[in-house]
Amino acid sequence: MSVVLVGCGNMGFAMLRGWIGTGTLPPGNVHVVEPLDTLRLRAEDQGVNVHSTAASLPAALAPAIVIVAVKPQVIGDVLADYGRYAQPGRDTIFVSVAAGVRIDRLEHALAPGAPVVRVMPNTPAAVGHGAMVMCANPSVTDRQLAAVRQLMAASGEVTEIADEALMDAVTAVSGSGPAYVFHLIEALSEAGRAVGLPDEIAGRLAMQTVFGAAAYARESADDPGTLREQVTSPNGTTAAALDVLMRPGGLAALIGEAVTAARDRAVELGR
Ligand SMILES: NC(=O)C1=CN([C@@H]2O[C@H](COP(=O)(O)OP(=O)(O)OC[C@H]3O[C@@H](n4cnc5c(N)ncnc54)[C@H](OP(=O)(O)O)[C@@H]3O)[C@@H](O)[C@H]2O)C=CC1
Ligand SMILES: O=C(O)[C@@H]1CCC=N1
Fold first, then answer.
1. Which of 1, 123, 148, 270 has the fewest CB atoms in 10 Å of its CB?
2. How many whole angstroms separate alpha carbon 240 and alpha carbon 168?
3. Where NADP(+) is bound, by residue (predicted)?
4. Residues in binding site
5. Sign of CA dihedral 35, 178, 45, 147
6. Residues 151 and 120 in one domain
7. What is the CATH number of the domain that holds 23?
8. Closest ligand 2 atom to the C-alpha of 179?
9. Is there an atom of ligand 1 within 6 Å of 50 CB?
C-alpha cells in the first residue's frame, strides 16, 4: 500500500515517525510532499521518498491513501494539486487531519463524491499513543475505511464517530489536549523549583508523575475520581493542595473554559 503524506510539520511528522517506527509502512512505500527544506530532510532521514511539490510525484503513482496535514487555511488550495487521484476509476482515499475543515469543503476541493475521511489525531501518535478519531463520508467503502483504520491504529487508539459535528469537540479535547498536559508538566515542574527542588529533579518528578498517573488511571478498574481520593489522606498534604485546585473557578472551571475556547476556534476555522 503506498501512501502520500502532504505536509510534514508537527502533526504530519508525528504520524510518520509512528508508522515508520512501528514498521506499519515500509519507508519505500511512503511519499512525503513538504516545501520546507529542513522538514523535508527530517522526513528523508526516516527513509521515505520526499518531494518539494506534488508535481514531482511519480506519474505512475497510484496511492491507496493521500493524507493531508497542512494548515486549515491552505488545505483547499493544496488539495487542488491532488484532484487527479480523485478522478473516476481511481481508488485513492483522502484523509484530512485539518482542524475545523468539514468533509463537504474537502470534497468540493477534490471532486464530488471523492472518498474522504476526516481524522483528528494528536502528537503522541509519534510514540504510538495517539488518540485518533475518524469520521468518513458515505463514499468511503468498508474496505477503504479498514485501510485507514489500520494505519491510524499504528498511531494509537482509534475511535470512529458518525456525527461530523462532534469533530470540533474532539479537536478541543484530544487534538489540542496534549498541549494542556504538557503545560501541566511545565507548571508542576516550575512549582517544584519554587519550593526548592533542583531543576533537573523537579522536571523529572513532574514528568514521571503525569506519566505514572495516566498509566495507572488507564490500567485501573477505578475511575479517576476514586484514584484521586485514594491519594487524599484526610487532613493531609493532598487535601491542602486540592482545596486550592478544586475551589470555585479552579482547575475544572479553567479547563472547561479552555476546551470551549478551542472548540469555538475549530468552528471558526471551518468557516
Ligand atoms: N499540531 C498538532 O498537534 C495537530 C495538528 N492538527 C492539524 O494538522 C495540520 C497541520 O498542523 P501542524 O503540523 O501543526 O502544522 P505545521 O505548520 O507544523 O505543518 C504543516 C506543514 O505543511 C507544509 N505545507 C504548506 N503547503 C504545503 C503544500 N502545498 N504541500 C505540502 N506541504 C505544505 C507547511 O509548510 P509552510 O510552513 O511553509 O507553509 C508546513 O511545513 C493542521 O491542519 C492542524 O489543524 C491536528 C491535530 C493535532
Ligand atoms: O492548534 C491547532 O489548531 C491544532 C489542531 C489541534 C491541535 N493543534
1. 1
2. 36
3. 69-72
4. 69-72
5. negative
6. yes
7. 3.40.50.720
8. 7
9. no
The answer to whether the Cα torsion of 137, 142, 146, 148 is positive or negative is negative
pLDDT (tens digit per residue) in 18-77: 999 999 999 999 999 999 999 999 999 999 999 999 999 999 999 999 999 999 999 999
Asked whether the predicted pLDDT for residue 88 surpasses 90, the reply is no
- Residue 46's nearest CA partner among 65, 23, 69, 68 is 23
The answer to whether ipTM exceeds 0.90 is yes
**Structure-block grid coordinates of residue 196:** 526548592
Which single residue is written with the C-alpha cell 468518513? Answer: 136
Residue list for the binding site for NADP(+): 69-72
Tell me how long the chain is: 271
Domain that includes residue 256, residue range: 177-269
In order, the DSSP letters of 67-108 are EE-S-TTTHHHHHHTTGGGGSTT---EEEE--SS--HHHHHH
